[in-house]
Amino acid sequence: GGGRGLWTDLAPMTLPRQEVGAARIGDRVYVCGGLILGSPSRATNTVEVYTVSENDWDPGPLMPLALDHLAVSALDGYVYVMGGFTRNFQGGGITMAESFRLADGAAEWEPIAPMPESRAGHWSVAHGGKIYIFGGVQTGVGVRASVLIYDPVLDEWTAGAADMP
Length: 165
Description:
The model has no long low-confidence stretch (mean pLDDT 94). The chain is globular and about 40 Å long. Helix content is 0%, strand content 45%. A hairpin with a 2-residue loop joins strand 11 and strand 12. It has strands at 21-25, 28-32, 35-36, 42-43, 47-51, 56-59, 71-75, 78-87, 93-103, 110-112, 123-127, 130-134, 137-138, 142-143, 147-151, 156-159. It contains no helices and 16 strands. The protein is an all-beta fold.
Protein backbone atom coordinates (compact mmCIF):
# COMPACT_ATOMS: atom_id res chain seq x y z
CA GLY A 1 0.00 0.00 0.00
CA GLY A 2 0.97 3.61 -0.44
CA GLY A 3 2.27 5.71 2.40
CA ARG A 4 0.92 9.03 3.51
CA GLY A 5 0.91 11.53 0.65
CA LEU A 6 1.56 8.91 -2.06
CA TRP A 7 -0.81 7.88 -4.82
CA THR A 8 -1.49 4.19 -5.44
CA ASP A 9 -2.87 2.65 -8.62
CA LEU A 10 -6.23 0.96 -8.10
CA ALA A 11 -8.33 -1.25 -10.35
CA PRO A 12 -9.69 0.79 -13.29
CA MET A 13 -13.38 1.40 -13.81
CA THR A 14 -15.05 -0.54 -16.61
CA LEU A 15 -16.50 2.49 -18.42
CA PRO A 16 -14.45 5.68 -18.90
CA ARG A 17 -16.62 8.61 -17.82
CA GLN A 18 -16.51 12.09 -16.34
CA GLU A 19 -18.92 14.42 -14.49
CA VAL A 20 -20.09 11.51 -12.30
CA GLY A 21 -21.56 11.44 -8.83
CA ALA A 22 -20.17 9.15 -6.13
CA ALA A 23 -20.95 8.18 -2.55
CA ARG A 24 -19.54 5.65 -0.09
CA ILE A 25 -21.43 3.27 2.16
CA GLY A 26 -19.16 1.14 4.32
CA ASP A 27 -16.70 -0.73 2.11
CA ARG A 28 -18.42 0.21 -1.18
CA VAL A 29 -18.18 3.32 -3.35
CA TYR A 30 -21.07 3.83 -5.78
CA VAL A 31 -20.10 5.77 -8.94
CA CYS A 32 -23.28 6.86 -10.70
CA GLY A 33 -23.95 8.12 -14.20
CA GLY A 34 -21.62 10.53 -15.90
CA LEU A 35 -20.76 11.80 -19.31
CA ILE A 36 -19.34 9.48 -21.95
CA LEU A 37 -17.31 11.44 -24.46
CA GLY A 38 -18.20 11.07 -28.09
CA SER A 39 -19.80 12.93 -30.93
CA PRO A 40 -22.15 13.92 -29.43
CA SER A 41 -21.30 13.26 -25.78
CA ARG A 42 -23.95 11.30 -23.95
CA ALA A 43 -25.04 10.69 -20.39
CA THR A 44 -25.13 7.15 -18.99
CA ASN A 45 -27.42 5.41 -16.52
CA THR A 46 -24.77 2.89 -15.52
CA VAL A 47 -23.49 2.45 -11.97
CA GLU A 48 -20.23 0.86 -10.93
CA VAL A 49 -19.55 -0.25 -7.36
CA TYR A 50 -15.99 -0.30 -6.05
CA THR A 51 -15.28 -2.57 -3.08
CA VAL A 52 -12.39 -0.98 -1.21
CA SER A 53 -11.18 -4.14 0.58
CA GLU A 54 -11.09 -6.11 -2.68
CA ASN A 55 -9.87 -3.33 -5.02
CA ASP A 56 -12.51 -4.48 -7.49
CA TRP A 57 -15.39 -3.01 -9.50
CA ASP A 58 -18.79 -4.62 -10.08
CA PRO A 59 -21.76 -3.37 -12.09
CA GLY A 60 -24.55 -1.84 -10.02
CA PRO A 61 -28.24 -1.52 -10.87
CA LEU A 62 -28.96 0.80 -13.81
CA MET A 63 -30.39 4.18 -12.76
CA PRO A 64 -33.88 5.05 -14.05
CA LEU A 65 -32.38 7.93 -16.09
CA ALA A 66 -29.11 8.57 -17.89
CA LEU A 67 -27.60 11.59 -16.07
CA ASP A 68 -24.40 13.59 -15.80
CA HIS A 69 -23.51 16.46 -13.44
CA LEU A 70 -25.83 14.76 -10.91
CA ALA A 71 -25.80 15.13 -7.12
CA VAL A 72 -25.08 11.89 -5.26
CA SER A 73 -24.86 11.36 -1.52
CA ALA A 74 -25.22 8.56 1.02
CA LEU A 75 -27.44 8.59 4.10
CA ASP A 76 -28.53 5.81 6.45
CA GLY A 77 -27.63 2.94 4.11
CA TYR A 78 -29.01 4.51 0.93
CA VAL A 79 -27.38 6.15 -2.08
CA TYR A 80 -29.40 9.17 -3.24
CA VAL A 81 -29.35 10.61 -6.77
CA MET A 82 -30.92 14.05 -7.22
CA GLY A 83 -31.22 15.84 -10.55
CA GLY A 84 -28.54 16.27 -13.18
CA PHE A 85 -28.41 16.75 -16.93
CA THR A 86 -30.02 14.41 -19.40
CA ARG A 87 -28.85 14.83 -22.99
CA ASN A 88 -30.80 15.52 -26.19
CA PHE A 89 -29.76 13.97 -29.52
CA GLN A 90 -27.34 16.83 -30.21
CA GLY A 91 -25.65 16.33 -26.82
CA GLY A 92 -27.14 19.44 -25.17
CA GLY A 93 -28.00 19.18 -21.46
CA ILE A 94 -31.50 19.52 -20.04
CA THR A 95 -31.75 19.79 -16.23
CA MET A 96 -33.89 17.29 -14.38
CA ALA A 97 -35.65 17.33 -11.01
CA GLU A 98 -36.17 13.57 -10.71
CA SER A 99 -34.68 11.94 -7.63
CA PHE A 100 -34.31 8.33 -6.54
CA ARG A 101 -32.47 6.16 -4.04
CA LEU A 102 -30.87 2.72 -3.79
CA ALA A 103 -30.56 0.68 -0.62
CA ASP A 104 -26.97 -0.53 -0.20
CA GLY A 105 -26.71 -3.84 -2.07
CA ALA A 106 -30.26 -3.66 -3.52
CA ALA A 107 -31.11 -4.59 -7.10
CA GLU A 108 -33.40 -1.66 -7.97
CA TRP A 109 -33.61 2.10 -7.50
CA GLU A 110 -36.80 3.53 -6.01
CA PRO A 111 -38.27 6.94 -6.87
CA ILE A 112 -38.50 9.64 -4.21
CA ALA A 113 -40.06 13.11 -4.32
CA PRO A 114 -38.51 15.16 -7.15
CA MET A 115 -36.68 18.36 -6.31
CA PRO A 116 -38.98 21.42 -6.43
CA GLU A 117 -36.94 22.71 -9.40
CA SER A 118 -34.60 21.05 -11.85
CA ARG A 119 -30.83 21.29 -11.24
CA ALA A 120 -27.51 20.08 -12.61
CA GLY A 121 -23.95 20.79 -11.58
CA HIS A 122 -25.16 21.15 -8.00
CA TRP A 123 -23.73 19.67 -4.83
CA SER A 124 -25.34 17.48 -2.18
CA VAL A 125 -24.31 16.84 1.41
CA ALA A 126 -25.95 14.52 3.94
CA HIS A 127 -26.04 16.00 7.45
CA GLY A 128 -28.23 15.51 10.50
CA GLY A 129 -30.55 13.03 8.78
CA LYS A 130 -31.27 15.32 5.80
CA ILE A 131 -29.73 15.99 2.39
CA TYR A 132 -28.81 19.53 1.43
CA ILE A 133 -28.58 20.63 -2.22
CA PHE A 134 -26.43 23.67 -3.01
CA GLY A 135 -26.37 25.79 -6.16
CA GLY A 136 -26.19 24.40 -9.67
CA VAL A 137 -27.77 25.50 -12.91
CA GLN A 138 -31.31 25.27 -14.23
CA THR A 139 -32.24 25.09 -17.93
CA GLY A 140 -33.73 28.40 -19.04
CA VAL A 141 -32.90 30.11 -15.72
CA GLY A 142 -29.13 29.87 -15.29
CA VAL A 143 -27.05 29.66 -12.13
CA ARG A 144 -28.95 29.05 -8.90
CA ALA A 145 -27.87 30.30 -5.46
CA SER A 146 -30.69 28.64 -3.55
CA VAL A 147 -30.42 25.75 -1.10
CA LEU A 148 -32.89 22.86 -1.04
CA ILE A 149 -33.31 20.41 1.86
CA TYR A 150 -34.65 16.86 1.49
CA ASP A 151 -36.14 14.98 4.46
CA PRO A 152 -36.06 11.23 3.67
CA VAL A 153 -38.41 10.35 6.54
CA LEU A 154 -41.17 12.64 5.22
CA ASP A 155 -40.07 12.35 1.54
CA GLU A 156 -40.41 16.14 1.35
CA TRP A 157 -38.36 19.10 0.14
CA THR A 158 -38.11 22.52 1.78
CA ALA A 159 -36.22 25.66 0.87
CA GLY A 160 -33.11 26.58 2.83
CA ALA A 161 -33.36 29.56 5.18
CA ALA A 162 -31.31 31.74 2.81
CA ASP A 163 -29.68 31.63 -0.60
CA MET A 164 -25.92 31.43 -0.89
CA PRO A 165 -24.27 34.85 -1.41
